[in-house]
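Colleagues,

Please find the record for the three-part complex below.
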Amino acid sequence: MVYQVQLDTFQGPLELLYQLVKKNKIEISEISLARVTEQYLEYLEELKDFDLDLASEFMVIASELIELKVRSLLPQAENDDQEDEGGGDLVHRLKEYHYFKRLSRILQDYQEKAAKRFTRPSGYEPASAGREELDLAVDLTELVEAFKKVMAAYRDKAKQEDLPLEEDWDRINSENIKIEDKVEYIMNRLAENPGGISFKELSRNCRNRLEIVVTFLSILELAKLCKIRVVQDKLFASINLIGKTG
Amino acid sequence: MDVKNLAKIEALLFTADEPVPLKDLARVTDLSPAEVKEHIEVLIREYNKNSHGIMIREYDQSYLFVTKAEYATFIEELHNNRSLAHLSQAALETLAIIAYKQPVTRAEIEEIRGVKAEKTLLTLSKYDLIQELGRKDSIGNPIVYGTTKKFLQHFDLKDLSQLPEIEEEEL
Amino acid sequence: MDVKNLAKIEALLFTADEPVPLKDLARVTDLSPAEVKEHIEVLIREYNKNSHGIMIREYDQSYLFVTKAEYATFIEELHNNRSLAHLSQAALETLAIIAYKQPVTRAEIEEIRGVKAEKTLLTLSKYDLIQELGRKDSIGNPIVYGTTKKFLQHFDLKDLSQLPEIEEEEL
């Protein structure tokens, strides 16, 4: 059985060993670890080309596994007290790893439940109703006083210098020229004019410079999206737009 | 009136750091704006009681939990490492002009105050007290400024009509 | 039991985005820790009612208002999925080791997981889930790590004794 592995799925040699033990549905014991040695080594074969640092950690465990394997293949001779050193340690480490792995899964559940509890936005300066303002330390009275003061000063100055009061205070409409809108407008105009349309014609109806810039940007966008073809016969000649169908 | 809906709206307002528009509450709760409003009014009455230290404020059809003014000093003491930002006189005057004259251009503000306004406008934008409303349809298409929802919140105004009126002769 | 004190504590807890230590509440309110605790217990009972969407949690003698879990989806919808970053498997495993073995050194963590822990420790410190507790009195005086109050909050644990236990022999 070839064990299909991908390097990035294992964070380390213990993780790999743990997954092999789980996959083979065997107990964590010296004997069963010896059984997965081949699979572990197969994985290392694939790992060869990778990062040496990482590979060396895998090699340490591999040598321990080989030792276990060899010992399990040898007849049960009068083994002396050296026997437990390698295998026993690996078994212990793997068991401990398994223990924390299970704990981390429980913590994961806790985390998911806890993530359903929201707190106040962090870094938020508490809003307070009423006079005491926390963040900017200014209240409405001060705002009104500031306005009176500044307007009084202005009127004085205007009177002395004989200036017209508050010129240009006419209300205006806020406008928001968006590329999306312009793109739609250009596409509509092109649909009406299958023979094409010039940039000059498009910009004729623009109310200000900003709108001309937005028109130009929209043309660039449409050209990029291959929705239109842009043609200029010679330098400084009129720029013509032709719609592409389909 | 469903208590679960009250609780839901309470949780939604609690997690917000700026006023939540009525229509957003309606969208999320699947209630009509009128129903949300009914629920909010129950919450407002409840939190207005003396036993509560927080209350719900309305700002231009949007709602926010705030602490009651009388506990401000305790809150400051608890979070005493928080530095208080101070608005300079220049910033305050500029803000006042924008509040009363909006929409207003930078040139107009500078005309009134007789000094450059660029830095002050940056500061006020940083605190989210003013915003660009668009461009004026005159030569150069200057940007026009107005106040933000945060401005209303900061001065505890329900909407701009609540700005104190100033008699012409006071000026 | 004074309603004004209830309101005051409510306001103080409301403004916090992390658990507020009982002793800080006592200092600011001029009440004894025991008195504050009594008031908080009244608040906890009140907010546990179905009509509330928020509640008070205790983390290591500190208190915090949080929303009730059942309203999570609505809150996420309103605030465009403002959910917390989830920890990677590596970070969770490392955190589990630190939580159960604290105070623990980097070498001990690396021994258990069989891989370097440096980056993961940095990440966990950045999220304020672990902290350096001091140095161990052994060769090289290695730093020892432990969990923070933020850790308790992140996993919604009252204190470390609430960490789930599993039997060793279940292995």
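Chain C has eight helices and six strands.

Comments are welcome before we finalize the supplementary table.
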